[in-house]
Amino acid sequence: MPWKVINQMDLKIQLINDWSEGHSSITDLSQKYGVSRPTVYKWLKRYEHFGIEGLKEQSRAPKRCPHRTAEYILNLVIQEKLRNRKRGPRKIRAQLKRKYPEREFPAVSTMAYWLKKEGLVEPRKKRSRVPPYTEPFSECHAPNDIWSIDYKGQFHMKDGHVCYPLTVSDNFSRFILGCQALEGPRYDPTRRCLESIFREYGLPRAIRTDNGTPFAGRCIGGLSRLMIWWILLGIIPERIHKGCPQENGRHERMHRTLKSNALDPVAGNLKEQQKAFDLYRHDYNNDRPHESLNDQTPNDYYGKSNQSYVEHPHPPDYSHDYLVRQVRHNGEIKFMGRMFYLTESLAGLPVGLKEIEDSLWQLQFSFYALGSIDLRKNKFIRN
Length: 383
Fold this sequence. Notes:
Strand content: 15-25%
Structural class: alpha+beta
CATH topology of the largest domain: Nucleotidyltransferase, domain 5
Helix content: 25-40%
Order of helices and strands: HHHHHHEEEEHEHEHHHEEEEEEE
CATH superfamily of the largest domain: Ribonuclease H-like superfamily/Ribonuclease H
Mean pLDDT: 89
Number of domains: 4
Number of strands: 13
CATH class of the largest domain: Alpha Beta
CATH architecture of the largest domain: 2-Layer Sandwich
Largest sheet: 6 strands, mixed
Low-confidence stretches: none
């Protein structure tokens, strides 16, 4: 037979009944029910004033809070949020201070609390981010040391289609290697454009990009298909830090000139826009003097690379102190009897592992460091 469970309310009623019979003192009741004498007095007093209802648990919240946000202030905050649903608490507070300079408004964190409590904050979907670039940037002392590549912001043409200008420049000479009108920042057209540039000018030592598509990915090392292709060609991929366009300042400055000189608002289609880009590129490279080049033109400083483009590069080789593993079709490698997931982008390609500490192995794809494998914790550690 199961034990009968008695809740706290039943115990309080039994205590009141025992007291009403007049056979138990306060001390007896305290000892019998395992509560203090003041607690017994409190329950008896509540029963005397409110009956059985007085024995129910009471709220322990303070009856007043002098620092609580005033109701009319809260209403102002909510009304402002309803007028501008996409604005956050910081902008709402600034707007209210402009409208009502004589009133005091709570802190941004307090406004955020009330907006969330009122159900006016939409939860953000967690986005996977491109891992940060951890290697130092290469020095630029000669042509083809570093190229920069980027997509200039898109704009609409007369036919209603969007144009995404892809630009490639040499950082030392400021020479524009390519300025192509494309329909979007996708891998295939970007690669075709780069293949044409590589065949004409050869290969650089490094290419610097931002963290956007298709230059960088969200997998290990920020790898993308484009980056993997560059690494196979022996090109070092460099990525500027998030929110730091100044790290690619020369290329960004060229974009400013491109915007004012070559974004033709009357271009009817991509073909017409490409003609405008070709004229701009010729003028920029051959006629426009640059202060940083002693008032010479980029063409006076630029020369083609000695490293030729290889149509079908070989998979990377590793020295004798590396253990080589082939990445499987599902993106995993088997190492020391265990499976580790890397990325499906490297499927069919070899990676190298070198022990740098006891049970800690550095993982590389060719010369590019991807992270390390900790056998003690049985996990892959990204750079």
